[in-house]
Task: structure prediction
Amino acid sequence: MIGHVNKWGNSLGIRVPKPIAEQLGIEKGSTVEFFVKSNHELVILVPTKTATKDDLTANTKTLDTVTA
Result:
């Protein structure tokens, strides 16, 4: 896929096509990390979601509800 670089204030911006944004799970306001590899490749890393306490305990049971 080919994209175009545009001026955005004093910076340059690259648009992320919707199908790629959906595949990566990013949206407006998402934080990404990017860097350039030695062979001129741009690498974009999308942080994985940090699990909350509720996420981790959603499918757990307390000892008093567990039957033998």
In short: Residues 5-65 form a domain with the Pemi-like Protein 1; Chain: D fold (CATH 2.10.260.10). The radius of gyration is 20 Å.
